[in-house]
Amino acid sequence: MYNFEFVKPSSVEEAVAALKTEDAKPLSGGQTLLPTMKQRLASPSKLVSLLGIDSLKGVSVSDGVMTIGGATNHATVAKEAASAFPGLAYLAGKIGDPAVRNRGTIGGSIANNDPAACYPSAAIACGATIVTDRNEYAASDFFQGLFTTALEEDEIVTAVKFPIPEASNYQKFEQPASRFPLTGVFVAKYAGRVGVGVTGASEDGVFAWAEAEAALAGNFSPDAISGLTVDADGMISDLHGTGAYRAHLVKVLTGRGVKAAS
Amino acid sequence: MPKDGIGASTKRREDKRFLTGVGRYTDDINLRGQAYAYFLRSDVAHGRLTNVDISAAAEMEGVVKVFTAADFSAAGGLPCGWCVTDRHGNPMQEPKHPILAEGKVRHVGDPIAVVIADSPELARDAAEAIVVEIEELPAVINMKDAVKDGATKVHDDLTSNLCYDWGFVEDNREAVDKAIKEAAHVTTLELVNNRLIANPMEPRVAVGHYDRASDDYTLYTTSQNPHVIRLLMGAFVLGIPEHKLRVVAPDVGGGFGSKIFHYAEEAFVTYASKVVNRPVKWTSSRSEAFVSDAHGRDHVTKIELALDENHKFTAIRTDTYANMGAYLSTFAPSVPTWLHGVLMAGNYTTPLIYVNVKAVFTNTVPVDAYRGAGRPEATYQLERVIDKAARELGVDPAELRRKNFIQPDQFPYATPVAVEYDTGNYDATLDKALEMSDYAGFDARLAESKARGKLRGIGIAHYIEACGIAPSNLVGQLGARAGLYESATVRVNATGSISVMTGSHSHGQGHETTFAQVVADMIGIDASQIDIVHGDTSKTPMGMGTYGSRSLAVGGSAMVKATNKIIDKAKKIAAHLMEASDSDIELKDGQFTVAGTDKSVAWGDVTLAAYVPHNYPLESMEPGLEETAFYDPSNFTYPSGAYICEVEVDPETGEVEVLAFTAADDFGNVVNPMIVEGQVHGGLAQGIGQALLENCVYDENGQLVSGSYMDYAMPRAADVPMFAVDHSCVTPCTHNPLGVKGCGEAGAIGSPPAVVNAVIDALHRSGHKVGHIDMPVSPARVWAAMNGQG
Amino acid sequence: MKVTMKVNGRQVSGEVEGRTLLSSFLREGQELTGTHIGCDTSQCGACTVHVNGKQIKSCSVFAVELEGAEVTTIEGMAAPDGTLNAIQAAFQEYHGLQCGFCTPGMVMAAAALLKDTPKPTESQIREHLQGNICRCTGYHNIVKAIMAASGQPVAAVAAE
């Protein structure tokens, strides 16, 4: 690993200022960044730890919206979201493994936008708002393809706001090695609309399965999507599964998610 | 019997240090003043090295020295320990395997240069400053393409990429062809035995230390056989005589075969420590292990099984391509031949067998023994083709096997593939497994799964393996360049405690516990009085190490021999002390008695007399009580067993869940049942891993696609069930003193076909007439096969 | 940079680079070599330790991030006189280890599990060990050991 300067500010303002240095990077739980740095695939000049900023941590609910601080780790979400938003708590509790969940954060996951990360599927399905030190983004505007987001280099995810659905479910079909989703589907049912967020499957990263959302809005049951097909074009093909297989999984998992949430 | 003697599930004495974090693995060794080596490895599979410029790197902060191939012009290549003779009587093609790449790189991971620096990070920093220019050549990856005329050659100085074309038994060839032509039924199956990576949890580490004062070298290394490394490295690579070279393998964190072989990094750190006059340490990262540890398996096979109208097997013909990788690893040529072809009879009376193996060089990491080594490849073909035959003929797969089993009264049984099984009772293990798995009750469980929308299947496999390798004169005739005996020195101390120095080497098997149980049992003293010393060439007699499920069968036999010598001498001393005749002395529970009298002396009295020989027959016997024995086995041992796997398949996703796994093994006598069962559990997880999860994949350019745990699927806790294991069917080995056969590899040998047979069974029972799915039987592959996309 | 933390109840400090991992700080700086490194992709779990009471992978956190933290390693699990704790003793009793390399991480993971879930089911145990790879035992005896350490009957999970 290349060496770097390390700072641990206690406020968002200090952190943003520290990120003005060229090639500085924010460090949250580090569960993706550290392995990347070990492979020497990332070489930040400075790491700005966000874990010393108390305002970035915590789960709160008000007016039907769950707000999760950017530096809140997965284990905390799994625990604290359990009663108000069990679908999201379940998702958080299935990320990685217990040790990873004690370090990895929602902000880190969202900002990295790994095509197989779990959180983006929920953010897309729920129409979440990604709050940063300088902006608020609709999830659909925030995620812009593999490892690409609307964030500027020195911008920090301070919180993610999820409108809490009436019912929700996350279906994760694990890639057997990494235990990331080979395909993961988050289904969220609201009054008058249904969100279906898909991760792990598409070459363009997380996406909303619009046809299913439309069909499910009128009839929230697995039958509603039985006539739909998912196009295998643009789906990831690798040693763990073809695009056709992933396309098939999207439908199967959506059906299962709907059934479980019904 | 003392409470921790033979047959007791004695708790392991090794455990306390491992459980409290004070085990001493090679990476825990740090020598004063040590420097760190970083290997710069090729990132292309095949190419000519046109320029390696180390000048900038050599000038960097903290860099001690940078080495390239030129620094090793006086050293030999890494030797291959086995020369296979091809079907025409010619020796295999054997390319040089240099320590650092000479002229060409031949696989991703082939080392090009090494930086030695004051810290690992500085060494790696400097390695990035080395300028390497490579003229890329087409990568040779597919084995069948590699042996076509005009194929790019991995080694320019060889005639082709064919290492050897082996036929066995060549004299059977025509008779086998005829039998297959005339058979009532022939079942044919083409399959792949997937390439695997052993992945012991401890990556390899080597620390070299040259002592200028004594002119001695010491190598600390993660090895299953330190004496073998000393011999190969000293005599063939570096030219250091044994008395100047000590090899120490301390606690070793698993090996599964991958730590048998002599690797370039070991020779490098040993040599370099003299050049730079500092200890030199190299610690492999896991990513580096993926491209530098020898891989396993990687066979592509067509097998044909001929049956007569009574469903008796009449002939087997196989045609296998075996991947050697870019160079010949230490025992690579023996794996697809003498550890594979000779097992093709399995547990059956098939009279005619012909095995053809083409070993092929490719631009991939060298392939060598991995848990089972050749025997899983043989078992998988055989047990899959038998299952397919049963389905084609509409007969129960258990009954088809039973009909063809070698019967208990046929032992010793000479197979048509050159080995003679000493004992076995295959009906017994099959019956046991059928009973344990409630085979008869399967239909009810099937219905229960069906009600939940799941497909259920059950699969059987029977296996035999050849362990306890091996008779030295025999393997010498077959091309081995080493003997395969084992050694032990039993040193009895004056107060009666004992140090046993064994040439075997534990890397997780618990020898310190098991071996002590054997000696304790023989002498009748408490096992706590006995220490097992292993893993250091300066302490133990020349021994060949631990692999091939040989430690107790061969190393244990040496120890028994040495202990018997001790007992013989101790009896003479006891006879002197009690003024009786040697032949009247009996040893029981650590007491020597004169038969028919109440006269006795204790073990400790005799051992003290041996070292304080005031009252001692000095005129006829030397003082002291220390004996060494070497044991060279007269045959292999032949563990066997029946494995039954029950799976559920998710029809929507193709996901396979192993619901139950039963293993009924005949290991002969068992010293420590707890440890034996643990060995089986571990083997089963690796076999289930091979069947469902693990796959080492190269793309057409020779890049390793499954190059980390992010893509190489290791079995985890949730991937395997609780196992039902049994070893109560015992036919003791007839030719070693303990009657033991070996248990280390069985689980990995018998389980892959059982799992795949179960999956195919589940599919057939639900109307999917799928002939075969290659391992790993991943959800995607099952789904594709069910949907006609296979 | 200087970093100070409490390791196994003892205040320790050392000079580190930014890039020094907690695992290196422990293994090289503190000579606590029970924490093992089995991979470089945060998958194997051999390096699992507890930081402020939570299990984490010491290969995936920088030492400088842990200024003032309380760290427990495998060396801090047994009693000062070397007596094994209940989990360690159960691993020995049920043969939950072979080569011993993954064992420190397994014990630390098991301890974290039992702290939050004193009576886990077999599937909870297996699920909790998703981030700890063992190549030797096939997990069978690890599951039994953790069951036993939790005071539950081992027969409930044993297939044999």
Automatic annotation (TrEMBL), chain A:
<dbReference type="InterPro" id="IPR016169">
    <property type="entry name" value="FAD-bd_PCMH_sub2"/>
</dbReference>
<dbReference type="InterPro" id="IPR036683">
    <property type="entry name" value="CO_DH_flav_C_dom_sf"/>
</dbReference>
<dbReference type="InterPro" id="IPR002346">
    <property type="entry name" value="Mopterin_DH_FAD-bd"/>
</dbReference>
<keyword id="KW-0274">FAD</keyword>
<feature type="domain" description="FAD-binding PCMH-type">
    <location>
        <begin position="1"/>
        <end position="167"/>
    </location>
</feature>
<dbReference type="InterPro" id="IPR036318">
    <property type="entry name" value="FAD-bd_PCMH-like_sf"/>
</dbReference>
<dbReference type="Pfam" id="PF00941">
    <property type="entry name" value="FAD_binding_5"/>
</dbReference>
<dbReference type="GO" id="GO:0071949">
    <property type="term" value="F:FAD binding"/>
</dbReference>
<dbReference type="GO" id="GO:0016491">
    <property type="term" value="F:oxidoreductase activity"/>
</dbReference>
<dbReference type="InterPro" id="IPR051312">
    <property type="entry name" value="Diverse_Substr_Oxidored"/>
</dbReference>
<protein>
    <submittedName>
        <fullName>Carbon monoxide dehydrogenase</fullName>
    </submittedName>
</protein>
<dbReference type="InterPro" id="IPR016167">
    <property type="entry name" value="FAD-bd_PCMH_sub1"/>
</dbReference>
<dbReference type="InterPro" id="IPR005107">
    <property type="entry name" value="CO_DH_flav_C"/>
</dbReference>
<keyword id="KW-0560">Oxidoreductase</keyword>
<dbReference type="InterPro" id="IPR016166">
    <property type="entry name" value="FAD-bd_PCMH"/>
</dbReference>
From TrEMBL, chain B:
<feature type="domain" description="Aldehyde oxidase/xanthine dehydrogenase a/b hammerhead">
    <location>
        <begin position="20"/>
        <end position="138"/>
    </location>
</feature>
<dbReference type="GO" id="GO:0016491">
    <property type="term" value="F:oxidoreductase activity"/>
</dbReference>
<dbReference type="InterPro" id="IPR037165">
    <property type="entry name" value="AldOxase/xan_DH_Mopterin-bd_sf"/>
</dbReference>
<dbReference type="Pfam" id="PF02738">
    <property type="entry name" value="MoCoBD_1"/>
</dbReference>
<dbReference type="GO" id="GO:0005506">
    <property type="term" value="F:iron ion binding"/>
</dbReference>
<dbReference type="Pfam" id="PF01315">
    <property type="entry name" value="Ald_Xan_dh_C"/>
</dbReference>
<dbReference type="InterPro" id="IPR008274">
    <property type="entry name" value="AldOxase/xan_DH_MoCoBD1"/>
</dbReference>
<dbReference type="InterPro" id="IPR016208">
    <property type="entry name" value="Ald_Oxase/xanthine_DH-like"/>
</dbReference>
<protein>
    <submittedName>
        <fullName>Molybdopterin-dependent oxidoreductase</fullName>
    </submittedName>
</protein>
<keyword id="KW-0560">Oxidoreductase</keyword>
<dbReference type="InterPro" id="IPR046867">
    <property type="entry name" value="AldOxase/xan_DH_MoCoBD2"/>
</dbReference>
<dbReference type="InterPro" id="IPR036856">
    <property type="entry name" value="Ald_Oxase/Xan_DH_a/b_sf"/>
</dbReference>
<dbReference type="InterPro" id="IPR000674">
    <property type="entry name" value="Ald_Oxase/Xan_DH_a/b"/>
</dbReference>
<dbReference type="Pfam" id="PF20256">
    <property type="entry name" value="MoCoBD_2"/>
</dbReference>
<keyword id="KW-0500">Molybdenum</keyword>
From TrEMBL, chain C:
<dbReference type="InterPro" id="IPR002888">
    <property type="entry name" value="2Fe-2S-bd"/>
</dbReference>
<dbReference type="InterPro" id="IPR001041">
    <property type="entry name" value="2Fe-2S_ferredoxin-type"/>
</dbReference>
<dbReference type="GO" id="GO:0051537">
    <property type="term" value="F:2 iron, 2 sulfur cluster binding"/>
</dbReference>
<dbReference type="InterPro" id="IPR036884">
    <property type="entry name" value="2Fe-2S-bd_dom_sf"/>
</dbReference>
<dbReference type="InterPro" id="IPR036010">
    <property type="entry name" value="2Fe-2S_ferredoxin-like_sf"/>
</dbReference>
<keyword id="KW-0001">2Fe-2S</keyword>
<dbReference type="GO" id="GO:0016491">
    <property type="term" value="F:oxidoreductase activity"/>
</dbReference>
<dbReference type="InterPro" id="IPR012675">
    <property type="entry name" value="Beta-grasp_dom_sf"/>
</dbReference>
<dbReference type="Pfam" id="PF00111">
    <property type="entry name" value="Fer2"/>
</dbReference>
<dbReference type="GO" id="GO:0046872">
    <property type="term" value="F:metal ion binding"/>
</dbReference>
<feature type="domain" description="2Fe-2S ferredoxin-type">
    <location>
        <begin position="1"/>
        <end position="77"/>
    </location>
</feature>
<keyword id="KW-0479">Metal-binding</keyword>
<dbReference type="Pfam" id="PF01799">
    <property type="entry name" value="Fer2_2"/>
</dbReference>
<keyword id="KW-0560">Oxidoreductase</keyword>
<protein>
    <submittedName>
        <fullName>2Fe-2S iron-sulfur cluster binding domain-containing protein</fullName>
    </submittedName>
</protein>
